[in-house]
Structures are given as structure tokens and as C-alpha cells.
Amino acid sequence: MSDPVLEMRDFRLVFDTYRGTVQALEGVDLTIYPGECVGIVGETGCGKSATARAMLGFVDKPGRVTGGSIKINGRDILKLRSREMRRLRGREIAFIFQEAKKALNPTVTVGTQLLEAVQAHQRVPRKEALERVHEALRQVGLADPDRLMDSYAFELSGGMAQRVMIAIAIVGNANVLVADEPTSALDVSIQAQVLAVLRQAREVTGSALFLITHDLGVAAENCDRIAVMYAGRVVENGTVEDVFSAPSHPYTARLLAALPSAERETLEAIPGTVPDLVDPPPGCRFANRCEKATQLCVEQRPPMSAIAGRRQQVACHHPLVSTKPARQETMSDG
Amino acid sequence: MRLDVLRVVAGRLANGVLVMAVLSVLIFAFMRAIPGDPVLTILGENVTTAEQYDALRESLGLDDPLHQQYFSWIKQVRQGDFGRSIVTQEPVLPLVVDKLKATIELAFFAVLFGTVLGVTIGAIAAFNRNTFFDGLATVISLVGVSIPVFWLGIILIITFSVTLNLTPIGGMKSFDTIITTVTGFPLLDAILTGNWNAVGDLFRHLFLPALTLGLAPAALIARTTRASMIEVINEDYVKAGMARGLRYPLVLRRHILKNALIPVITVIGLELGVYIGGSIVTETVFSWPGLGRQMMTAIYDNDYPVVQGAILIYAVMIVVINMLVDITYMLVDPRVKL
Questions:
Q1: What is chain B's alpha carbon radius of gyration, rounded to the nearest angstrom?
Q2: Is residue B56 one of the residues assigned to a domain?
Q3: Is residue B24 part of a domain?
Q4: Which of A56, A58, A80, A107 is the best mutation test for B, with the most CBs of B within 10 A?
Q5: Cβ burial, residue A271 (10 Å; 0-12/13-18/19+)
Q6: What phi and psi values does residue A325 have, to the nearest 5 degrees?
């Protein structure tokens, strides 16, 4: 397998608040290979968005990086100067926002925003820039590009706005796209269309996609691999088939059990609440809600271990399928 | 010219005519309701006989019934004749326009000062939120909004003119400064004729009144800029611009300032009305030979035609300013449909 386009290792992020330091992300590991789609699922506040934004070097106050590395095409972005980081944005990594209409400037035309994405990185004649923008708009299925470019965000429907955002993201030919809940703000019927557009656009550009969602169905349909996040840690990752058919972390299992289905009469909620991350427990962060938890879980943080015979890893002392200790090399062969 | 802009101009002007019509009745009535008698103002202590008094009253047309006086005044005004000053016999319109030029010059620099100072302080405070500078700016602007104009003017005169002897106490220029009239705006004329000594002299006279008039609006503009800026900085589209790899100056100009300054334009527009009100007080404190001071004098003298003319001119200015603010609004914010 070729080198990863994005590799996050032991990434740590804290938020300084009046109450104390919130340990928001504690040692997140993620690997994305060229062209694949990696999904990340988890409940609100588990750190999905913070992880995604950090990939573009967006760590705003009161956030603070305390350790780890994020390598994009081999370069650690945490060590880059802001000028070098700017050159990376849009060209090597691009971001698709949850609410496209809010991510478009209300007083500037759509065309200007598309063109500036091209011109931010290259001095190209206006004509050539326009051609590229038209090409990107065609790829996201937007007809009549000329009229569209003269319009403003408030004149677009939610689905159209999100297509425009995707066009902006792909126009710079970035090889990683990061999409933060790209369809959550849309009607269900439009969601599928937008995801299809995203998929088709990636087929042309060959970009990898890091897809944040809390919708397990969206993850299952669109992703090759999936990471499950809980309270600032990745607790399980693997191929979509493996994780969904045989979840090995109790949290993943409970998450899947909470999905509605035809056979189920009632939905199972997970009892308890997420621990306070100002003073997190030393062990597994799910221990207080887990029925399999033992004294070991409370005291010791479970390491990420590979599951034999599967391209799946889990951070649990008592996984639902037997495990063996993982080597760094074997965990990234998905 | 955009069609919608023309439509707004036409609409606002039609509206303005209506406003002026109502206003003309009000000022006419108010002037006659307040105590005082222009005939006695002119005659002063020299009233000898009742015949003399009646003769003057009749010659001024003040013995006619009120409605008749009103309609004959309106008829004149419609033809561009605002009548003559009861006291000096000067024609009102040239007098009022001449004084207005001095007021506009003062207001222009006050607006300039207030806007530049307000936007700068507000923007710096927004980018340095919850720092010492931000706190200081908030306190200063609160003080700035709270200080009455006349008091500030007097304090500035005592400090800069009396104690430090840096600026003149009042007036628009020194007695020995002579300016060739080109446009009637003294500072502009001095610049056009290359009279740099006069320019310096005019600026020294302009400094304190412009500061006095501009400070309260500056404070309000600073607070609005700060609040609006903080809101816009946190918008997704700003982050989205950065995510595209745009250079920060472009993000600042096109994505932050363009949106953050829209509410500021509203405040500046509203403040322009305040400038006009404030200019009356400021001109009085600083003996500025503008329309406000002229009007104050005319009110004391019961000089009906001058007061009426001045107020009508003020009303025209307010109507025009509001129209300009609306048009600016349409040009900067595509969502605005008026």
C-alpha cells in the first residue's frame, strides 16, 4: 500500500477554560490512504469536529495542542509556519462545512469565492481560472455555471450551496477532503444526492475523504474504513464491514444497538453520561457506562490492539472478540 | 445606474417632500407660539408710538391672519425665495446656504474623525478581545457616549486653549486670515488657492470643535464595530475563506470587513443626524459661524424667516443623508431590497 496522505499520531488537544483544562483529544490516531474514505462516528462533543479542524491547522483559542503529529503528504503540519500552512490549505487538504449556506460569504458572489479558491495558490489568467471553476461546477452537477456564479448564497437552496462548497473544495485538487457532517443540515432526500455528488467528484479527482458524521447509515454507505470516537479517544477502527458486523468495543456495540430497525421494538439508550473531561478518569473513558467494566478498566487506559484475522483494532481491556497486541505496522494496512 | 437605486432615490425624494410639507407647518406654528415679538426686536428700546409699531408690523406682513401668512410664505419658498431676515433684511437663502457650508465643513471632519477613530478602536478591540486594550476601549467609549457635548467643548477649550494655549478659543479663522472665495467652503477654498497659511489657521480652529462633535459618535461606532467584528470573525465563511488558503489580508478585506462594516454603516447614518443636532451646540460653544449658531441667534431675535429657512435646510439634509445611507446599504449588501 502506498504512503498515507494523512497520518495523525497521538494527537492531543486541550481547551483552557475557567473550570480548568479540558482534555478534549487524548492521543488520537488516524490514518488515511490515497483515494479512500475514512468515516469517523461518535456522539456530539466527542471531539470529531475538533479533530477535523485540527487537520487544517485550525486550533482556535482556548484550544491548545499539547502533543502528537499530523502529517499531510508526509509533512507535519504542526511544525509548519502559518505561511506554509496557508499554502497547504485548499491545495493539499480542503474542508467542507456542515452548513454550506453559512460557509459562503453572504455579500460576495459564489463566483468570486470559487475563483479565489483557484487564484489563492496560482497565478493563472482569469480565463483559465474560469474554465477550472466551470469544470468543478460541472463535476458537482450544477448546470448553468454562468448564472450560478453571479448569485449569492441566500439565493441558493441548501443542496445547491453544498454542491458549491464541494466544487470549491475540489477546484484546488487537494488530495484529502475533510467533510464535517456535510449533509446533516439537508433534507433526507437531498442528503443522498449530495453524498453521491461527493463520491462522483472524488472518482474524478482521486481525493481521499475524511467524513465526519453521527449517522451510522451514512458512514456505512460511503466509507471504506471507520473510526469510532468516544470522549476524545478513538476506541475502535476497522473496515466498515468488520466494525458493523462484529463490533468489538462495547461502546460501538451499544451505538449499533441504538439504531432503529424493523425487528426492534424499542431503541436502546446508553445509560450514564460522558465523564467530565476537566478531570478525566485515568482508565477507559467509557468505563462508567460499560457493563463489562472491571477495576482494570477504571485504573488503566486500554491500548489500541489489533484483532486477529481482521483489519480491525480496538482499545478495550475486554473486547467482544479476542485480540492480540498490535504492532504499529499492522494497524495501518487497511 | 441600477434601476433599483433610482427607484429608492425617487421614493425617498417623494417621501422627503411630504416630510417637508408637514415640517413647514410645524415650524411655522412653533415660531409663532414661542414668546417674543420680532417687531419689538427691531424697534428695540425705540418704540415711541403705537402708530410706528403698527406700521412696521404691517410692512412685515405680520398683521395678516396666520394661515394667510403661512400660505404666502410657502408660495415664496416654492419659488426658491425664503424671504428676508426681519432683523438684517438680508435674503434668507444665500445667508442660510453660506452658513451651511461652514457647518458641512465642520461636520465632514467630525464624521471623518469619528468614523476613523471609532472603526480603528473597535477593530483593534475585537481582534484583542478580553485584553487590557479591549477593556480600556470599552470604558473610554462608555465615557465618550455619556459626556454631554457642551460640557466636553468647554473642558477642551479650558484645557487646550486656555491652559495649554495650543488652539484658538473659538471662531473659524483668525481675523487677519483672508480667504479668496471660490466655492464658499473656507478650507476647500484655501487649498484650491494654495493659501497654505490659511489652511493651517483653519485647521487649528477646526480641531477642537471637530473633536467635540466627533467623540460621542466615535464611541458608539467603536462599540458597534467591535461587536459586529467579533460576530463576523467567528462566522463559518471566514474560516471557509482561510480553509481555501486565502491570504489573510484578502480574508480580512473581503470576508471580515465587508460584512462587519454593514451594521457600522447604519450607525454612521443614524449618527449623521446626531452630528447635525450636535453641531448646533458645538457651534454655539466654539462660536463657529455655521448654520446652527445662525439659527440660535435667529431664534433669540424672533427672526421667523431665518429660523424657518434654516430648519427646512436641515430637513433637506436629513432626507438626503438617509437616502445616501439606504443607497450605500443596497450597494454593499445584496440581500437588501428596498
A1: 24
A2: no
A3: no
A4: A107
A5: exposed
A6: -60, 140
The C-alpha atoms of residue A6 and residue A208 are separated, in whole angstroms, by 9
Q: Which fold has domain A6-223?
A: Rossmann fold (3.40.50)
CATH number of the domain to which B284 belongs: 1.10.3720.10
Give the closest-approach CA distance of A49 to chain B in angstroms: 13
> What residue numbers bound the domain in which B141 lies?
92-300
Radius of gyration (C-alpha) of chain A in whole angstroms: 21
Starting at the edge strand found earlier in the chain, the sheet holding A305-306 runs A93-96, A176-180, A208-212, A37-41, A225-230, A233-239, A312-314, A305-306, A324-325
Total domains in chain B come to: 1
Q: What is the pLDDT of residues A215-259, one digit of tens each?
A: 898 999 999 999 999 999 999 999 999 999 889 999 999 988 888
CA B255 to CA B235: how far, in whole Å?
10
Calculate the CA B100 to chain-centre distance: 9
B256 within some domain: yes
d(C-alpha B222, C-alpha B124), whole Å: 10
A107 touches chain B (CB under 8 A): yes
- pLDDT tens-digit profile of B257-288? 999 999 998 888 888 877 887 888 899 999 99
| pLDDT tens digit sequence for A101-113 | 999 999 999 999 9
Across the interface, do A86 and B262 touch by the CB < 8 Å criterion?
Answer: no
Establish if B327 belongs to a structural domain.
Answer: no
Its ipTM equals 0.88
Helix (H, G, I), strand (E, B) or coil at B292: helix
Please list, in sequence order, all residues whose beta carbon lies within 8 angstroms of the beta carbon of residue A221, skipping any fewer than 6 positions away.
Answer: A195
The CA distance from A162 to A141, in Å, is: 11
Contact B335 A87 (CB under 8 A): no
Q: Which three cell numbers stand for residue A55?
A: 487537520
CA-to-CA distance for B228 and B261, rounded, in angstroms? Answer: 7
Instruction: Please answer whether residues A162 and A100 qualify as being in contact, where contact means their C-beta atoms are separated by less than 8 angstroms.
Output: yes
Tell if the CB–CB gap between A86 and B247 is shorter than 8 Å.
yes
Residue B243 has its nearest CB partner, among A56, A87, A106, at A56
Query: Which of B259, B229, B276 lies closest to B120 in space, CA to CA?
Result: B229
Q: pLDDT by residue (tens digit) across A132-172?
A: 999 999 999 998 899 999 999 999 999 999 999 999 999 99
Cβ atoms of B242 and B100 within 8 Å: the answer is: no
DSSP string of B171-221?
SSS-TT-----SSS-HHHHHHHTT-HHHHHHHHHHHHHHHHHHHHHHHHHH
Q: What is the DSSP letter of A100?
A: T
Residue type for B23, please? L
Half-sphere exposure of B297 (CA within 13 A, CB side): 18
Strand order across the beta sheet in which A20-32 lies: A20-32, A6-17, A63-72, A75-76
- Residue A306 above 60 pLDDT? yes
DSSP, collapsed to helix, strand or coil, labels residue A95 as strand
- Looking only at the bridges linking them, the beta strands covering A37-41 and A208-212 are parallel
Distance from CA of A50 to the nearest CA of B (A): 14
What b-and-e string marks burial along B147-167, b requiring 16 or more CB atoms within 10 Å of the CB? bebeebbeebbeebbeeeeeb
| Closest by Cα among A249, A247, A199, A261 to A224 | A199
- For the entire predicted model, the pTM comes to 0.81
Q: What letters, b where the CB count within 10 A reaches 16 and e where it falls short, cover A60-94?
A: eeebebeebebbbbeeebbebeeeebbebbbbbbb
CA distances from residue B226 to B119, B133, B138, B260 in whole angstroms, order as listed: 8, 12, 9, 9
Contacts of B334 (CB under 8 A, 6+ apart): A106, A107, A152, A154
| Domain range summary for chain A, segments of one domain joined by + | 6-223, 248-332
